[in-house]
Write a structure and sequence with these properties.
Number of domains: 2
Radius of gyration: 18 Å
Shape: globular
CATH superfamily of the largest domain: Response regulator
Strand content: 15-25%
CATH topology of the largest domain: Rossmann fold
Helix content: 25-40%
Distance between the termini: 39 Å
CATH architecture of the largest domain: 3-Layer(aba) Sandwich
Largest sheet: 5 strands, parallel
Number of helices: 8
Strand order of the largest sheet: 2-1-3-4-5
Length: 232
């Protein structure tokens, strides 16, 4: 299957380099020089993955990311000249799947693109099989199609919420520490402080629990972390 990658950057040289390497690896590419053009392309074309620069004219990469996330969970990799941890966390927090700092090694970008494609699409065609679907209580998570249903209705989750839920459901019955959750979901070393995790778990509970204040699925284990109940 040929996967289509949307490239969005206001630097022509970067677009050309990424296009060259991606095409060599068998990917189809569509280029956009700013955020407005990227969103217009997204509406007209089937895009499997997007690489988006943060600092662009007209509409910045964060806004492009947020607009795409309103209707799609495709993998999104952000590019930025900013290397501070706060910028990385913000990018991942608003729904990015990965963050690459400029200047970058094109081979590293290719490796990360392939990793995201493997994670989401499994490099296979067809329908989800039993191993791709996790069902606990009223929650059904389809890893193949990257979808979640609660009581038969589709849930609208952000990329981060989906990753957290997937990690919990794959490890149901186990206590997961804040350190484990952060490093798995954000792919960064945990440096302490759990406000980010707590906020996302609170939002996730509002979507998968009948009452987020008295959760039956995602339990807080005081002093240790969290546990997703296995038998409900």
């Amino acid at each position: 299957m040929e996967y289509t990658v949307l490239l969005c950057d206001d630097e022509k040289e970067i677009l050309d380099v990424l296009e060259l390497y991606l095409n060599k690896e068998g990917f189809k590419t569509i280029k956009a020089k700013d955020g407005v053009e990227a969103l217009n392309i997204r509406k007209k074309e089937k895009i499997d993955l997007a690489i988006i620069d943060i600092m662009m004219p007209k509409i910045d990469g964060y806004r492009v990311l947020k607009e795409i996330r309103k209707e799609s969970n495709i993998p999104i990799i952000l590019l930025s000249a900013k290397s501070q941890d706060d910028d990385k966390i913000l990018g991942l927090d608003v729904g990015a799947d990965d963050y690459i700092t400029k200047p970058f090694n094109p081979l590293e970008v290719m490796a990360r693109v392939k990793a995201q494609i493997r994670r989401v699409y499994k490099l296979t065609d067809g329908e989800a099989n039993e191993k791709d679907v996790i069902e606990i209580g009223d929650i059904v998570l389809d890893k193949f199609n990257v979808k979640v249903k609660f009581k038969g209705n589709d849930l609208e989750l952000t990329s981060i919420e989906y990753k957290i839920l997937k990690y919990f459901m794959e490890n149901s019955g186990r206590i997961l520490t804040k350190n484990q959750i952060f490093e798995e979901v954000w792919n960064e070393s945990f440096l302490g402080g759990d406000n980010t995790i707590m906020v996302h778990i609170s939002r996730l509970r509002d979507k998968i629990e009948d009452n987020g204040r008295t959760p039956k699925y995602l339990k807080t284990i005081r002093g240790l972390g969290y546990r997703f109940e296995k038998n409900i």
